[in-house]
């Protein structure tokens, strides 16, 4: 006997389920999930196709556990093996979700948004999320715009938000809660993701590559963690940035190694914040062409 009170079982009103966050590239899906979860579990950058994996973010509030699933932006521009894999990730996530958040930019609904909208299954409740609503200067246009988009699908709710400004996120979560099934929690109360620290480390490095190298670097560049060790509170991370050509390698390294040093510094700081302890990080750059063009290469680098 420890004298501790036994853990309380969740009541009949406990709600828990998967919430898929979908939309075209660069509408703010990853930022929205990070703000909802309260931690940076999905990387962000201005570069399209930054998110490449099915990323889960978990938030437990009272009698509700929200299990958000960030997905890659649905791709229509390229048809290589990488994009086919990413699009398959999106469609598989949609069919397995309990609730869907269809995210668009407030005031903008184009052909790429419509292509994602057409993927939404009719039997999964979906909320229309108008992100970046704070940028919409004429608020009187927001309701007619929402009504126009809503005419294309039977949405359970329409919620204008601003992920960056944390505007209306409580209202969004309340709408989500109404649609979640009565289930016990799937994860511990303190969990924020089901991804490993090794995976999160690779994503953080990849984010910094995209942020500091930008549009010059092909989207097929990726990061491989060759070794991840933990000793007490210290993590040692050894990462390889994989690029297609020698010219890309020079871009990443920069003049006298300055750009690679900046990537490494910023990635290490992000890891220390997320992991809650010191990080020793070594990064180098390798040329590895063609990995994104075949299924075997994708599996080798952790793509579903």
From TrEMBL:
Region (G5) residue spans: 161-163
Name of encoding gene: era
PANTHER family named among the record's database cross-references: GTPASE ERA, GTPASE ERA, MITOCHONDRIAL
Residues annotated for GTP binding in this entry: 23-30, 70-74, 131-134
Region described as G2: 49-53
Signal peptide from the UniProt entry: none
Domain Era-type G residue range list: 15-182
SUPFAM superfamilies: P-loop containing nucleoside triphosphate hydrolases, Prokaryotic type KH domain (KH-domain type II)
Family: Belongs to the TRAFAC class TrmE-Era-EngA-EngB-Septin-like GTPase superfamily. Era GTPase family.
Residue ranges of the region described as G1: 23-30
Pfam families: KH_2, MMR_HSR1
Localization annotation: Cytoplasm; Cell membrane
UniProt main location, coarse: cytoplasm
Topology of the protein relative to the lipid bilayer: Peripheral membrane protein
The keyword GTP-binding appears for this protein: yes
Protein name, entry field: GTPase Era
Subunit structure: Monomer.
Function noted in UniProt: An essential GTPase that binds both GDP and GTP, with rapid nucleotide exchange. Plays a role in 16S rRNA processing and 30S ribosomal subunit biogenesis and possibly also in cell cycle regulation and energy metabolism.
Keyword Plastid: no
Higher taxonomy: Bacteria, Pseudomonadati, Pseudomonadota, Betaproteobacteria, Burkholderiales
Residue segments, region G3: 70-73
Organism, scientific name: Herbaspirillum robiniae
Region (G4): 131-134
Domain KH type-2: 213-289
Keywords: Cell membrane, Cytoplasm, GTP-binding, Membrane, Nucleotide-binding, Ribosome biogenesis, RNA-binding, rRNA-binding
């Amino acid at each position: 006997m420890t004298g501790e009170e036994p853990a309380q079982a969740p009541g009949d009103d406990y709600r828990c389920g998967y919430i898929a966050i979908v939309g075209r590239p660069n509408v703010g899906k990853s930022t929205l999930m990070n703000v909802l979860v309260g931690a940076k579990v999905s990387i962000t950058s201005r570069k399209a196709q930054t998110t490449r994996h099915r990323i889960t973010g978990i938030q437990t509030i009272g009698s509700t556990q929200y299990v958000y699933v960030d997905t890659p932006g649905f791709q229509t521009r390229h048809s290589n093996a990488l994009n086919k894999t990413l699009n398959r990730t999106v469609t598989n996530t949609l069919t397995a979700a309990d609730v869907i958040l269809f995210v668009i930019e407030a005031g903008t609904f184009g052909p790429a948004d419509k292509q994602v909208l057409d993927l939404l299954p009719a039997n999964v409740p979906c909320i229309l999320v108008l992100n970046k609503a704070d940028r919409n200067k004429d608020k009187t246009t927001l309701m007619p715009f929402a009504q126009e988009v809503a005419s294309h699908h039977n949405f359970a709710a329409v919620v204008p938000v601003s992920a960056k400004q944390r505007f209306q996120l409580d209202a969004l979560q309340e709408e989500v809660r109404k649609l979640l099934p009565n289930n016990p929690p799937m994860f511990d109360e303190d969990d924020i993701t089901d991804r490993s620290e090794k995976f999160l480390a690779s994503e953080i490095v990849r984010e910094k590559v995209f942020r500091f190298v930008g549009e010059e670097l092909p989207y097929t560049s990726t990061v491989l963690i060759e070794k991840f060790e933990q000793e007490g509170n210290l993590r040692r991370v050894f990462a390889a940035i994989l690029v297609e050509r020698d010219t890309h390698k020079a871009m990443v390294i920069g003049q006298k190694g300055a750009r690679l040093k900046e990537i490494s510094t910023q990635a290490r700081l992000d890891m220390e914040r997320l992991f809650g302890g010191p990080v020793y990080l070594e990064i180098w750059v390798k040329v590895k062409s063609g990995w994104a063009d075949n299924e075997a290469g994708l599996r080798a680098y952790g793509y579903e």
